[in-house]
Write a structure and sequence with these properties.
375 residues; mainly beta; Tachylectin-2, Chain A; 2% helix
């Protein structure tokens, strides 16, 4: 039986790493060291300034941090990463505070078909029948990698920490035949929702229109995306919106490779997103290894806004090893900017010894004064 909305704080999950064989490569790709795309509404303008000591932070935010999904909402940052066996979220009022914020298990499932290999969770605030709710999408299986399917939870209220209850399986194909992971939601200005994920045959990107946050209403459509020399994987799609464009950023290559990196497709918001011709391929990778900075395999990202809404930030996982390994993927974040042609400029992955200014508008938590001594 499943147990929903577990609120107990838990210790870090046991680190697991395996050398993948030819049939288990993708399972190891996600399942290795445990611990995992979104724009949010700007927070109210802060009324206090940060103390000098809190104006910078360093990566990584989490040492075990594959597939990070990070959101700023109502004064707090919320972060989830892949654990493999459950879904955990941590929160903190400062970006640096996430490094020590405790993880809370918000979902663990005993249902045989979806109890393990739980990967790449992400939560979206969408309109439900009872008002705004957080819909948490994730992939899981029975232990057989080929049996991965997408699922969605719904929050009881409007708190990203839950509690959550199981809502539905996302039927990514009519006969429930095909592997599906890394699902995300794309929202058009008219409110139409689309679901996009990585699926088989192959390991490529598919899209379908949704009738509500838990139901797919059309047949899936394959959206081609260039691997720039990496033939084996397209995954982790996440949308970024600006000036009437949808910038669809995706990951390419085997996650174990140091060349795991990000590419980008571009579509006008007014186009039919189910038509492959609506998507234009950006001519080169947009974020990749930086050997001089000691960063390898940067990818599976998400996006978030600074607390005052003036800055755009990317969260991603990266490694310090240039070897072929699924281990050592840690959560990192950095600010990005925009080019004159309107496309995002993610720059290069920053080294771990770099002091990074905190996101604009971040306010340190108030410190209670010490009580006066008794006389």
């Amino acid at each position: 039986m499943l147990s929903a909305g577990v609120a107990a704080k838990t210790a870090q999950s046991t680190k697991r790493e395996a050398t993948p064989g030819p049939k288990t490569k993708q399972a190891a790709r996600k399942q290795a060291p445990s611990m995992t795309k979104s724009q949010t509404r700007p927070a109210a303008k802060p009324s206090a300034k940060l103390p000098t000591a809190a104006r910078t932070f360093r990566n990584p935010l989490k040492e075990e941090g594959a597939d990070p999904w990070l959101v700023f909402h109502n004064g707090n940052y919320y972060l989830t990463r892949t654990t493999g066996e459950d879904i955990r979220i941590c929160r903190a009022p400062t970006i640096g505070g996430l490094a020590t914020a405790p993880d809370v298990v918000v979902w663990r499932d005993g249902t045989p078909s979806r109890r393990t290999q739980i990967w790449a969770s992400e939560f979206h605030l969408l309109s439900g029948p009872d008002g705004p709710r957080w819909y948490l999408y994730y992939t899981a299986s029975d232990g057989n990698d080929d049996h991965h399917r997408m699922h969605v939870l719904e929050s009881v209220g409007a708190d990203p920490m839950g509690p959550y209850f199981y809502k539905a399986q996302m039927k990514t194909d009519a006969d429930n035949r095909f592997y599906a992971i890394d699902g995300t939601v794309i929202r058009k200005p008219d409110g139409t929702l689309y679901f996009m994920w990585a699926g088989r045959p192959g390991h490529v990107l598919f899209i379908a229109r949704m009738s509500n946050p838990w139901t797919i209403e059309t047949e899936r459509v394959h959206i081609p995306a260039d691997g720039f020399g990496c033939p084996e994987v397209r995954e982790g799609p996440v949308p970024l919106y600006r000036n009437g464009k949808i910038y669809l950023v995706y990951s390419m290559c085997d996650t174990g490779k140091p060349d795991y990196r990000l590419g980008m497709l571009i579509a006008d918001e007014t186009r039919d997103l189910l038509q492959p011709a609506s998507w234009r391929q950006h001519p080169r990778p947009v974020f990749e290894r930086a050997d001089a900075n000691g960063v390898y395999g940067p990818g599976h990202n998400s996006f978030f806004k600074s607390p005052d809404g003036t800055e755009d930030w990317i969260a991603y996982h990266g490694k310090t090893s240039s070897s072929y390994t699924y281990g050592g993927r840690s959560t990192r974040v950095q600010k990005f900017t925009w080019r004159p042609d309107g496309t995002p400029d993610f720059g290069v992955p920053l080294p771990l010894d770099r002091d990074i200014p905190v996101p604009s508008g971040e306010v340190a938590p108030a410190v209670k004064p010490a009580p006066s001594p008794k006389r």
